[in-house]
Amino acid sequence: MLVQQILSSKGSAAVVTTTPETSITDITRLLSEHRIGGVVVSSDGSTVEGILSERDIVRALSTKGPSCLDDRADALMTPNPVCCKRGDTTHSVLERMTEGRFRHMPVVEDGQLIGIVTIGDVVKARLSELSMEKTALEDMITGR
Ligand code: AMP
Fold first, then answer.
1. In which element (H, E) is residue 114 found?
2. Whose alpha carbon is nearest atom 7 of ligand 1?
3. Is the CB of 118 under 6 A from ligand 1?
4. CA torsion sign, 132 to 93 to 105 to 1?
5. What is the C-alpha separation between 78 and 38, in angstroms, rounded?
6. Helix or strand or coil: residue 82?
7. What is the pLDDT of residue 12?
8. pLDDT for residue 11
9. How remote is the CA of residue 103 from the centroid of ligand 1, in Å?
10. How many angstroms does the Cα of residue 31 sit away from the middle of ligand 1?
């Protein structure tokens, strides 16, 4: 299965982005309002500059304390995150997420952000793929 199929199944929902100068306080509101765990950081809404996840905020709270809520997004984000393309397989995306220990991956085409996939999206896609393969193998063995 390809990343494009995940994007199609998720519908045309726009990717939530934030600017590098947005405060961490405002980002906690954004994450909570959209019920998401990570946000792409971009000055123009389409060039990926970084990614900021709830984990970055929790880490900063534990090391720096509540004053980190006044920091800018670019102070806590991971710059130049690993991105994928719509033609990448879900298998390769899952491999990169597992190796890098992250759960979000922006989808970029010609330098422009076109979507985002989460580990939840990818696991769901792989499970449905494996279930279809199992049925096909059973049908082949039993001659159905
Ligand atoms: P996550 O598991 O996605 O919530 O993120 C865990 C850590 O990895 C955080 O420090 C994120 O900033 C970072 N991170 C998230 N997504 C990516 C990505 N696609 N590439 C590189 N780092 C990432």
1. strand 112-118
2. 102
3. no
4. negative
5. 11
6. coil
7. 65
8. 77
9. 6
10. 15
Dihedral sign, CA of 117, 119, 123, 124?
Answer: negative
Ligand 1 contacts CB of residue 100 (under 6 A): yes
Residues 54-91: b if buried by 16+ CB within 10 A, e if exposed: bebbeebeeeeeeebbebebbebbbeebebbebebbbe
Which domains does the chain show, CATH number per domain?
3-142 (3.10.580.10)
Q: Cα–Cα distance between 29 and 61 in angstroms, integer?
A: 16
Q: How far is the CA of 80 from the centre of ligand 1 (A)?
A: 10
Ligand 1 and 104: CB distance under 6 A? yes
- Please report, in tens digits, the pLDDT of each residue of the chain (144 residues total): 899 999 998 876 689 999 999 999 999 999 999 999 999 999 999 999 999 999 999 999 999 999 999 999 999 999 999 999 999 999 999 999 999 999 999 999 999 999 999 999 999 998 988 998 899 999 999 987
Q: Going along 49-111, which residue ranges are E strands? A: 50-53, 78-79, 104-109
Question: Which residue has a Cα nearest atom 8 of ligand 1?
Answer: 102
